[in-house]
Amino acid sequence: MPKTNNNSRAGSSWGKVFLNTFLFLLACFIGGIIYLIILSRDLPSIAELQRFNPEQVSKILSADGKVIKELYIHKRDVVKISQIPRYLRHGLLAMEDRSFFEHSGISFQSLARAVVVNLMTLSRSQGASTITQQLARNMYNTIGFQKTYTRKLKELITSIKIEQTYTKSEIMELYLNSVYFGHGTYGVQAASNHYFGKDISKLKLDECALLIGLLPAPARYSPISHPHRAVIRRNLVLRIMKEQGYIEEEEYKVFTSGELPVKIIDRDGGLAPYFTEYIRRELEKIDEELDINLYKDGLIVHTTLDSRIQHALLTAFNKGIHRNQEILNEELSQNPLKLEEALEYSNYETDSVKLLLAENDTIPPALRNQLLVQGAGIVLDPASGHILGMIGGREEDIYRDHFNRATQAKRQPGSVFKPFIYLTALEEGHTTTTKLLNQPLVVFIDDTTQWNPQNHDGSTGLLTTIREGLRRSLNLISVRVVQELVEPKLIVKNAKDFGITTNIHAVDAIALGVSEVYPLEITAAYGTIANNGIYTKPIAITRIEDRHGRVIKNFVPHSREVQDESTIFILRDMMKSVVDGGTGGALRWKYKFYAPAAGKTGTTNSKADAWFVGFTPQLAIGIWIGMDDPAVSLGEKQFGSAAALPIFGRTIKGIYDIGEYQSRGETVLLNNKADWSVPPGVVEMEICEESFEKATRFCKTTKEIFLKENRPRRQCQIHSSPFSRFKDK
After folding, report:
1. Which residues are CB-neighbours of 198 under 8 A, at least 6 positions away?
2. Fold exhibited by the domain 78-256
3. Which of 350, 384, 357 has the alpha carbon at shortest distance from 373?
4. DSSP for 219-233, written as a single string
5. Smallest Cα–Cα separation from 566: which of 693, 457, 426, 444?
6. For 714, which DSSP code?
7. CA dihedral (378, 382, 387, 389) positive or negative
């Protein structure tokens, strides 16, 4: 009987063991489930996985399709799996996940091997991540990169979800577009551009192997920082690919014996740095409105800039700016007083600066405001307002800064402002033959201050027409226009109508352009004269597309008529005289540009600002040269015709030699014969060249144009008979 009780107690004990074991395992299972649920709370859902969009590089394109700037936090450029070379895909499989197409996100064989090795070595040195698990880490920051079992569990959960969401090809595509390749580049396309300067589709076998070799430790195997290690790693990848049957023995031998590939530069991302920075700032003004992220969304920003026109402007600008710098350096070296004044607030010794200037050496940052010649250049299409070219300052790497003088610098325009003076006179009924006395005058500003304007060359004369006053840029004539013919407030109104937004003072000194303007705005104002009195606000962006090519926003030029075409025609003809035989005449005889053109030189009294702004029927170009410190002169003889016009001349000649530019996907042909047509309100008459009245048959005649309502109506009284010339004798 006792034996039976013992058996019963033994059976009961084993039952309790099984029950407790079951309950323990159930508790572990439930605990594990709860733990996995807790881990999963901050992991992506299936729906979130389907919406996954990796950060991408946003690209700024020129009108002729060149990439001129990329915006990004992480440099990443997404490409389709079909664009990725077969060698690169095979190298990835050989090195990172040989059973990629067999497993469901987790390789249990690799996992078991890693567990055994780590237990034996009491470390976590052995990894077992599949491509899918690595993608899970790359896609979501919540997983992390720490070598912990918690992270590994998160990887496993997310990997299973990824495999449920995407096909194998899509997983490989996502991986290759998101993995880090070093030097701030993410994804194979960005890496290909960075290391080899070419599109991913053009990579050769050894280049593919080099990229795959980077994956375990991009910093350690970088071909830039550690070329020897990179070669060893590349050859290892090629050997594994050969062993796995992805390449032949002959290919292995050829490509393991080669040197590291040399990077090929096939585009100049620094062609227009001031323009692209201007674009970036314009985009930042509207990014919230459009709900876009400039640095993550992979936007395509189409701009108005034509890279060929920019290159022509840059070539001319660099040549001109270096010449102006040499002239200033020479003058400062020979004029100790001027040099001392420029160095007044610096700690530099005069002798050391003289040596620096004599050798045309790099100017230190502390002296650049006073000693570095700066400048700006803008090329516009007057009809569309498209900015075709822009320079905002010195282009050398050592001198380039973030201050765009084309759009941000307020500078005195000098005589470049005079067309608005003469335009106002024409509006008030005066004609090109209206005569004023070209003699000195004194203007009393207040009881103690007087102003005594002079012509730039010190000349004087008798009665002079306003056409001649503009052609020769006579200050005395423009001052008398303001004093005798028009009110300053009318000139201010015209300047505002033509797009000038700076504060223009309605005083007599307005005649000499003492109120500051932005180079871009004064160029657009001249573009209005070229465009028959229709002002078009300058634009730099034509449209923004998302990463899939869908248009987010189109930018349309805004135009308005600000002046009668007939009045503009008269003013423009006066400005043609400047180019054909006035202060801008070098454009014809020196720079051999013979297309119909008009423009104006400008120089401030201190010669701190030198300008030439001009136009043809198809282009308007503005050039400003000066010092950042307006108290420093460019040089005693650095008038607009000497400092700025050469850059204008070489630029416009270079552009017309190109013969075309791109605008809104179309080619615009430049015609060096194109001229402005005469509007109905303008008449040409033969007049007496002495009295400027209707010519008689006894007058010595010349031709002049007038508005119909303001044309001469009286016959010349001086030459009314054959004996008129003898009246005073």
Report:
1. 192, 264, 266
2. Penicillin binding protein transpeptidase fold (1.10.3810)
3. 357
4. TTT-TTT-HHHHHHH
5. 426
6. S
7. negative
| Tokens encoding 435 | 């005569």
Q: Contact at 8 Å (CB) between 639 and 625?
A: no
How far apart are the C-alpha atoms of 20 and 534, rounded to whole Å? 92
Lowest mean per-residue pLDDT among 124-133, 248-257, 680-689: 124-133
Amino acid occupying residue 51:
R
What is the pLDDT averaged over residues 422-442?
94
User: 712 near 704, Cβ under 8 Å?
Assistant: no
Dist. CA 501–CA 537, nearest whole Å: 12
- Give the number of other CB atoms < 10 A from CB of residue 636: 11
Predicted confidence (pLDDT) per residue in 372-430, tens digit: 999 999 999 999 999 999 999 999 989 999 899 999 999 999 999 999 999 999 999 99
Q: Residue 447: what pLDDT?
A: 57
651 neighbors 316 (Cβ within 8 angstroms): yes
Look-up: residue for tokens 């001031």?
Answer: 274
Whether 379 contacts 314, CB under 8 Å: no
To which residue do tokens 């050997």 refer? 239
Buried/exposed 45-82: b ≥16 CB within 10 Å, e otherwise: eeeebeeeebbbbbbbbbbbebbbbbbbebbbbbbebe
284 or 44, which is more confident? Answer: 284
Q: The whole model's pTM is what? A: 0.80
12 by Cβ neighbours in 10 Å (0-12 / 13-18 / 19+) ranks as exposed
Residue 514's Cβ-count burial label (10 Å; 0-12, 13-18, 19+) is middle
pLDDT in tens, 520-577: 999 999 999 999 999 999 999 999 999 889 999 999 999 999 999 999 999 999 999 9
The amino acid occupying position 123 is S
How far is CA 144 from its chain centroid?
Answer: 37
**Using N-to-C axis directions, what is the helix angle for 205-214 and 86-96, rounded to 10°?**
40
Contact between residue 662 and residue 306 where contact means Cβ atoms under 8 Å apart: yes
d(CA 467, CA 578) in angstroms, rounded, equals 9
User: Helices in 291-412 by DSSP H: which ranges?
Assistant: 307-334, 336-342, 350-358, 368-371
Going from the C-alpha of 478 to that of each of 436, 470, 498, 530, 718, the distances in angstroms are: 9, 8, 19, 22, 28
Confidence tier at 350 by pLDDT (50, 70, 90): confident
Q: Which residue, among 480, 506, 385, 481, has the nearest Cα to 427 in the 3D structure?
A: 481
Residue 14 has which token pair? 């084993």
Contacts of 202 (CB under 8 A, 6+ apart): none
- Asked if residue 408 lies in contact with residue 446, where contact means CB atoms within 8 angstroms, the answer is no
Q: What are the phi and psi torsion angles at 12 (to 5°)?
A: -65, -40
pLDDT at residue 96 above 80? yes
pLDDT digits (tens, 9 = 90+) for 607-627: 899 999 999 999 999 999 999
